[in-house]
């Protein structure tokens, strides 16, 4: 749930430079540096590498070449998820920072670029479960950004980066309390971060700001994940100049937010017209996304895209999840035998770093076959097809199911559907039933029901009831999705406490 947000915290951390004395190392966004940056962010990485070679030759003292080379390496590592490649490319980090420390200390980009190199590698480390080192890098980066903010308080790129980090500061789940103790420099609230990002957006609307697209992405994800405001997120991303037909990264961003705001048909159209060809670095995750979107519409060809993903992608994440979705596709078509054989791949392939992969493995380990009607309702709901999902469940009742997991899931799924349709009284009753009956099991239904209860009460202005619900969510510890659910509950408490 929060991967897409974590990606954009660091994905566009870069800088726009000012002209310094050319007799010593300096930071300048010359036309060549700008062109290289654009190619990197469009995943035209071969073209970007060629431009960076030219930049080093023509502007040997421009330290942005070090920064942009690191940026390019970050994209390779983050997308490919290859540990051997990570080890090789990460080894250049300290040399780059050493060279940048010799740069113009009077420039606002001096500390900023060093901080972002550390942030980029912190995010990359999460791919390989190097959590302690990642948090150590974040702490160093935050200190650099805070120092830079004191020196240059009107420096908008710094304010952009601090804004999203401040917004996230109060949402770190309890399972990472050890990291909070390390992150002595990371303080803030969602409201503080929102104010800072809004200030940068106002600046970008009236000035030539190299990060115009990126600030809209950051703000959209803050609205979506931390403020639970789907319509605001979609409005913001439409205000940006992102063109999903132009480059794979823009395609990913717009389609991802479309899928998370109930615009599944639009997401399918975007992904089916995604840009491709050898000019772009392979981004197989778009195949996986198209499979997800098509399955949510119950399209019969959804499995093709999951198969492409598991066959072509050599990285770590969403492999188990893709095999689970292939198994579901077989089940939806009535083939239980193929489901049973396919789900076994979740035990032996891929990793358990992201929540959806953990969930896929838990399903495989349990040996419990999903109930088809509940599965259809779940998939349709996730795609925003609420009425179709409701029609399926209204043909059933709790007594239609003999297994406890399916009875609890029925109450939970119907509650989610009612909530999405504005029938909050009905939803709250079903959520209470889900929590009371499901909190002592390892399934995530009760934890999510408590979270959604808090969101309903928050929207109605009942702050005490909302805080009680968010805290109840934190008290429930499912095996699946715990980190994401607890982070969302912490975000709710943060919104109501500041």
Structural notes for this entry:
This protein has about 500 residues and is mainly alpha-helical. The chain has helices spanning about 5-10, 30-40, 45-60, 65-80, 85-90, 95-100, 110-125, 130-150, 155-170, 175-180, 190-205, 210-225, 230-240, 250-260, 265-270, 285-295, 300-310, 320-330, 335-345, 345-350, 355-365, 370-380, 385-395, 405-420, 425-440, 445-460, 465-475, 480-495. The protein is built from 28 helices and no strands. It is globular, with a radius of gyration of 23 Å. Mean pLDDT is about 90; it is low at about 1-20.
Annotate the secondary structure layout:
Elements: H1 3-10, H2 31-41, H3 45-58, H4 64-80, H5 83-90, H6 93-100, H7 109-126, H8 131-151, H9 156-169, H10 177-182, H11 190-206, H12 212-226, H13 230-239, H14 248-260, H15 264-272, H16 285-296, H17 302-312, H18 319-332, H19 336-343, H20 345-348, H21 355-366, H22 372-382, H23 386-394, H24 404-420, H25 424-438, H26 445-460, H27 463-475, H28 482-497
Helix pairs in contact: 1-12, 2-3, 2-4, 3-4, 4-5, 4-7, 7-8, 8-9, 9-11, 9-12, 11-12, 12-13, 13-14, 14-15, 15-16, 16-17, 17-18, 18-19, 18-21, 22-23, 22-24, 23-24, 24-25, 24-26, 25-26, 26-27, 26-28, 27-28
């Amino acid at each position: 749930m929060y991967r897409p947000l974590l990606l954009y915290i660091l994905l566009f951390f870069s800088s726009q430079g000012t002209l310094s004395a050319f007799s010593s190392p300096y930071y300048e966004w010359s036309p060549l540096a700008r062109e290289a940056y654009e190619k990197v962010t469009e995943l035209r990485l071969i073209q970007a590498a060629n431009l960076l070679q030219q930049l080093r030759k023509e502007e040997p003292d421009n330290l942005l070449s070090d920064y942009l080379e690191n940026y390019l390496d970050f994209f390779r590592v983050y997308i490919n998820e290859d540990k051997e490649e990570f080890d090789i490319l990460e080894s250049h980090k300290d040399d780059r920072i050493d060279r940048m420390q010799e740069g113009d200390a009077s420039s606002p980009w001096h500390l900023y670029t060093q901080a972002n190199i550390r942030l980029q590698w912190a995010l990359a480390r999460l791919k390989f479960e190097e959590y302690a080192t990642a948090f150590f890098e974040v702490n160093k980066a935050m200190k650099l950004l805070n120092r830079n903010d004191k020196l240059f308080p009107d420096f908008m790129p710094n304010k952009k980066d601090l804004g999203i980090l401040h917004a996230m500061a109060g949402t770190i789940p309890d399972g990472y309390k050890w990291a909070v103790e390390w992150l002595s420099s990371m303080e803030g609230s969602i409201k503080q971060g929102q104010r800072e990002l809004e200030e940068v957006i106002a600046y970008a609307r009236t000035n030539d700001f190299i990060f115009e697209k990126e600030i809209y992405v950051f703000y959209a994800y803050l609205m979506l994940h931390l403020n639970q405001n789907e319509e605001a997120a979609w409005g913001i991303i439409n205000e940006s100049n992102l063109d999903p037909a132009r480059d794979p990264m823009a395609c990913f961003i717009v389609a991802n937010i479309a899928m998370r705001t109930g615009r599944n048909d639009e997401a399918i159209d975007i992904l089916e017209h995604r840009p491709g060809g050898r000019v772009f670095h392979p981004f197989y995750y778009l195949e996986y996304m198209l499979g997800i979107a098509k399955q949510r519409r119950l399209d019969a060809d959804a499995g093709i895209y999951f198969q492409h993903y598991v066959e072509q992608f050599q990285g770590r994440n969403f492999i188990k999840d893709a095999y689970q979705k292939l198994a579901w596709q077989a089940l939806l078509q009535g083939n239980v035998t193929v489901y049973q054989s396919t789900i076994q791949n979740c035990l032996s392939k891929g990793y358990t770093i992201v929540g959806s992969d953990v969930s896929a493995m838990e399903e495989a380990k349990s040996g419990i076959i999903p109930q088809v009607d509940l599965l259809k309702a779940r998939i349709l709901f996730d795609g925003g097809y609420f009425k179709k999902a409701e029609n399926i469940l209204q043909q059933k009742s709790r007594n239609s199911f003999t297994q406890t997991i399916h009875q609890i899931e029925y109450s939970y799924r119907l509650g989610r559907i009612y909530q999405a349709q504005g029938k909050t009284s009905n939803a709250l009753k079903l959520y209470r039933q889900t929590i009371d009956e499901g909190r002592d099991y390892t399934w995530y239904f009760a934890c999510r029901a408590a979270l959604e209860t808090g969101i309903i009460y928050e929207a109605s202005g009942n702050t005490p009831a909302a805080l009680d619900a968010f805290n109840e969510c934190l008290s429930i510890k499912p095996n699946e999705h715990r980190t994401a659910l607890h982070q969302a509950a912490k975000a709710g408490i943060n919104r109501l406490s500041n």
